[in-house]
Design goal:
By secondary structure, the chain is mainly α. It contains nine helices and no strands. The structure holds heme C (HEC). Heme C (HEC) binds next to helix 3, helix 7 and helix 8. Residues 1-38 form the signal peptide.
Length: 187
C-alpha cells in the first residue's frame, strides 16, 4: 500500500497553507529527508489539541465545499466566491496555536502533507477568483482539483480513519501543484 505520494520529492511551494505558514522554516531545514518519508497516518502524531483543531477545520471545509457545489451548479457565483474565500481564510490552526503547539506540529507532519495543504489553500483562492469572474468552467475545474487534493491527503495520511481509501489507486499528480510536479526529479 505504498502511496505514490511517498515518492514525491518536491520543492516546498510558496503558498501559505494553514500548516505551511509556520512550518516552512522547518521544511527548508529538513530538506529532502522529509520528502522521502513514507506516507503514514498523521493523527497518532498529533497532540489532542491539534487533532481537535484540525477536525474542526476539516468539518468547516467540507461544509463550505458542499455549499460551493450546489451554488456552482446553479450559477450562484457570489456564493462560490464567498465560500471559496472562506476556505482560503480558514486559519483556525494558525490562530489557535501556541508556540509549543507549533513545535509539536512541525515535528509531527511530513513535507508532502504541508505541500498538499498549501496547494489546497492556493486552489481555494483560485476558486474565489473564478466565482468573482463568474467563470463557471473554471469553477468546475478548480473544484475538481480541490477534491483531488482532499482525497490525496486523506488516502496518504488519514487511512486510519478512512479505511476505504487505504488501497485507493490515486493518480500521482493529485494534490500537487503542477509546478511542483515538474520539479519532481527523484523517483
Ligand atoms: C493536507 C492534508 C489534508 C487535506 C488536503 C484535506 N484533509 Fe481532510 N483531513 C485531514 C486529516 C489529517 C484528517 C483527520 C482529522 C482527525 O480525525 O484528527 C481529516 C479529516 C477530514 C474530515 C473528517 C472530519 C471529522 O472529524 O468529522 C473531513 C470531513 C475532511 N477531512 C474533509 C476534507 C475536505 C472536504 C478536503 C478538501 C477540500 C480535505 N479534507 C482536505 C487532512 C487533510
Amino acid at each position: 500500500m505504498l502511496s505514490p505520494i511517498s515518492s514525491r520529492s518536491a520543492i516546498p511551494r510558496r503558498g501559505r497553507g494553514r500548516w505551511a505558514a509556520f512550518a516552512l522554516g522547518t521544511l527548508v531545514a529538513l530538506g529532502t529527508s522529509a520528502a522521502s518519508q513514507a506516507a503514514e497516518p498523521v493523527r497518532p502524531e498529533l497532540t489532542p489539541k491539534l487533532q481537535g483543531l484540525l477536525q474542526k477545520e476539516m468539518i468547516q471545509i467540507e461544509q463550505a465545499m458542499q455549499e460551493i457545489y450546489s451554488a456552482m451548479l446553479q450559477g450562484r457565483h457570489a456564493v462560490v466566491a464567498e465560500k471559496g474565500q472562506s476556505i482560503h481564510d480558514s486559519f483556525i490552526l494558525e490562530q489557535s496555536l501556541t508556540d509549543e503547539d507549533r513545535q509539536d506540529l512541525k515535528a509531527a507532519v511530513p513535507q508532502e502533507l504541508l505541500q498538499m495543504d498549501a496547494y489546497l489553500h492556493e486552489l481555494s483562492a483560485s476558486l474565489a477568483e473564478a466565482g468573482q469572474a463568474q467563470d463557471t468552467a473554471r469553477q468546475v475545474e478548480v473544484y475538481g482539483r480541490m477534491t483531488e487534493t482532499c482525497v490525496a491527503c486523506h488516502s496518504a495520511y488519514v487511512t486510519d480513519r478512512f479505511e476505504g481509501l487505504q488501497d485507493a489507486d490515486i493518480p500521482t499528480g493529485w494534490g500537487m501543484a503542477p509546478s511542483t510536479q515538474d520539479n519532481d526529479s527523484e523517483g
